[in-house]
From TrEMBL:
Residues 25-264 form the Xylose isomerase-like TIM barrel domain. InterPro entries: IolE/XylAMocC-like, Xyl_isomerase-like_sf, Xyl_isomerase-like_TIM-brl. It holds the Pfam family AP_endonuc_2. PANTHER family: HYDROXYPYRUVATE ISOMERASE, INOSOSE DEHYDRATASE. SUPFAM superfamilies: Xylose isomerase-like. This is Xylose isomerase-like TIM barrel domain-containing protein.
Length: 291
């Protein structure tokens, strides 16, 4: 397994420019991560020359990029509006075209719809029909480039499309593309699944990416609300050898705090140095527990 973190841990703002990513590549590799999970939307907007430069820096630090997408509503592949679905298809096609520049082969997130969901429409059957058709086409384009797509199972407050592993596997079967797999996240699973290790075993070969976080999105190992040894055993049982990426959110405020609904500080008023210590300790915990 390869261990990573989402880029936004240190900030309350989703924004991150080229210089910001260069600093994060250095920091993540110094801490000992294999993966830095970056924003697919930032890749969409970055120029080819910036991406080429960023890739050189990534390579020199021996890091892998995975791309995380919480698409805006204007790119909703489940939309009843054909023009919006087409906009989404164009958006993801452009991201897939840019990923080889970063030698990135994993695109993940709620790309079957948009995030966070506002629940204005919740016609699930119709949304499945529309988005699965779009994802079949995107999945085939990804497969041609050797890219895999992992669809994130979210909790009920963030989507209506897929909220447990069983639904996600059924959805992937409907998409019917070898590139399209499932992403399970312990934070969401803790809310929705009856039995987290059983859900991991159910996913089996469909599991394409894995997110880790405590019940309140604290860093893995910070409060042990999740039975981490049981999670690790289930991953070993299915022979999982891909990304294990933490998505810690412990700072309140800003666009990140609002989107994740962090309404109080969960960091114990950590200084920047303490933030580094927390994540370094959590990475050690994961490597030990998942070894
Ligand atoms: Mn996640």
């Amino acid at each position: 397994m390869k261990f990573g973190t989402l880029y936004s841990y240190w900030s309350t703002d989703w924004a991150c420019n080229f210089d910001g990513y260069v600093a994060l590549v250095k920091k993540a590799s110094e801490i000992g991560f294999d993966i830095l999970e970056i924003s697919a939307d930032h890749v969409y907007h970055m120029s080819v020359s910036e991406l080429e430069k960023l890739n050189e820096i990534r390579k020199s630090h021996g890091l892998i990029f995975t791309l995380n997408s919480g698409p805006a509503k204007q790119y909703d592949l489940a939309s009843a509006d054909e023009a919006i679905r087409q906009q989404g298809m164009d958006y993801f096609t452009h991201i897939l075209e840019k990923m080889p520049i970063l030698q990135a082969d994993t695109l993940i997130g709620a790309i079957y719809s948009y995030w966070p969901c506002d629940f204005v429409t919740t016609d699930k059957a119709a949304a499945w029909e529309r988005s699965a058709q779009c994802l079949h086409i995107i999945g085939e384009a990804a497969a041609q480039r050797g890219i895999s797509i992992a669809l994130e199972v979210l909790n009920r407050n963030e989507t209506y499309i897929m909220t447990n592993c069983e639904e996600a596997v059924a959805y992937c079967k409907k998409v019917n593309s070898s590139a399209v797999k499932v992403l399970l996240d312990t934070y969401h699973m803790n809310i929705e699944e009856d039995d987290i290790p059983a859900a991991i075993r159910y996913a089996g070969p469909w599991l394409g990416h894995f997110h880790v976080g405590e019940n309140n999105r604290k860093l893995p190992g910070m409060n042990n609300s999740i039975d981490w040894p049981a999670v690790a055993a289930a991953l070993h049982e299915i022979g999982y050898n891909k990304g294990v990426v933490m998505e810690p959110f412990i700072l309140s405020g800003g666009a990140v705090g609002d989107a994740i609904r962090v309404w109080r500080d969960l960091s114990d008023n950590a200084s920047p140095q303490q933030m580094d210590e927390y994540i370094s300790r959590s990475l050690d915990f994961l490597k030990t527990t998942f070894a």
